[in-house]
Amino acid sequence: MLRRTLPLFACIALISLCVASNAAEKKISKDALPAAVQQTAAAQSAGATITGYSQDREDGKLEYEVEMMVAGHSKDVTIAPDGQLLEVEEQVELSTLAASVQAGLHKKAGQGLITKVESLTKHGTLVAYEAQVHKGARHFEVQVGSQGQTLAHEE
Fold it and tell me: How much of the chain, in percent, has pLDDT values that exceed 70?
């Protein structure tokens, strides 16, 4: 009996963890941002249209995210409570990337259709490119390093 119920309990625990991690992100207003976060957000969003603010916990640490549109493409910035810019995810055109990056993304996507690509910059350094891929009813993401190489771990 235990052998049959153990996988069920594992599935329930995994689903609960996913729901809890998604529930941690909370939409907030600009006024709810600490002053230091507002300053960094203002600098990062110059010329952009802000589409939303949220707060989240990543590895137990509070972070703020500012979502925006810049010249027709998306840009999301993650900021620490002290105003430090942690991460920037910015939409880029696949065709503008180096051939090695394009090849790496296409290899990871396989037969899937790449629908959106974002550059991932952490602490001021480009660390990866991430592509959203659609293959039939399945949707997934793939990542490659800044030169198109396979990453040791997901960024």
Answer: 85
Nearest-angstrom CA–CA distance, 145 and 148:
5
pTM: 0.80
pLDDT on residue 38:
97
SS3 of residue 2 by DSSP = helix
Q: How far is CA 77 from CA 34, 70, 80, 86, in A?
A: 15, 12, 10, 8
C-alpha to C-alpha distance for 152 and 130, rounded to whole angstroms: 14
The predicted model gives 89-106 an average pLDDT of 98
In terms of Cα–Cα distance, which of 84, 78, 48 is closest to 66?
78
Residue ranges covered by each domain of the chain: 25-81, 93-155
